[in-house]
Amino acid sequence: MEGIYSFLKENSDECQFSMTELMSHVNGNFVPHIKTVKVHLEAKYGEDILIIEKQKRNCVVCFRNTGFKILADKWYQEKKQNSHEERLRVIREAAAIIREDIRGVVYDKQNYPPSDEFVRDVEAAVPESLQVFLSTAIMKDKRGALDSRKKKCTSIAHAIIIAVRPRSFFSPLQIGVGTYLYKKFGSKNLINILSAMGFSAPYREVTIFENSCIHRPESEILENSFSQFVFHIADFNINTLDGRVTFHAMGGNSLCDSFHGY
Questions:
Q1: What pTM value is reported for the model?
Q2: How do residues 205-222 score in pLDDT, each as one tens digit?
Q3: What backbone phi and psi angles, to 5 degrees, belong to 199?
Q4: Phi-psi category of 34—alpha, beta or left, where left has phi over 0 and alpha has psi -120 to 50?
Q5: Which of 227, 188, 229, 184 is nearest to 206 (CA)?
Q6: N or C: which end of the chain has fewer CB within 10 A?
Q7: CB atoms inside a 10 Å sphere around CB 187
Q8: Cα–Cα distance between 88 and 82 in angstroms, integer?
Q9: What is the Rg, in whole angstroms, of the alpha carbon atoms belonging to the chain?
């Protein structure tokens, strides 16, 4: 267990680990059973750890930084007399609560959402406390264009979550932005610059997503279904000064009246 404890200590900035990842850091020839590892982790970390069993042998270990009980005790014990210091203390305590809520959520890092639902439920990934904070800060006493402000709240929330836990959360919203920028401008540097500022997924994440789209299982077309092939051409840079670096392409789709997709 010492190898697992050391690994968790070295990666204390992260809060979500798979049980397989932890088991790979067991030292020595003796490998304890997963149930034994669970018992030791719960005994050592207590309420600061969440062990969620998604499948029979696929567990996710999630850490929370602090406990609400500790925050409640400190709230009354460390009350400041100076109004300015008290305001800052309230903000720090609120930030600690929001950070704990972010670290307490288990996110799926193994699969991307379906293409037709890729950005449909991006708000669901945001903890309620963070939603309340951003909506209060951004949307209070505002009128008109509420949908636009809600999108800004969601975008900022995803940027905050990624900043808190960069290795255990990917944002479909930011991946979509990065993919669009890459298709539109083809610039790796542009994507990485915006990623460094929290506005887009990094270039590496964009390429991983594109590769996963290429290697996804093909749809299974049912027998006796009607299919029609539709093709169209696309021309780019057709009026260059020297007539070079032009691009002509043709692409097509198969349209079916019924199919069974994976």
A1: 0.64
A2: 999 998 888 776 666 677
A3: -100, -10
A4: alpha
A5: 188
A6: C
A7: 13
A8: 10
A9: 24
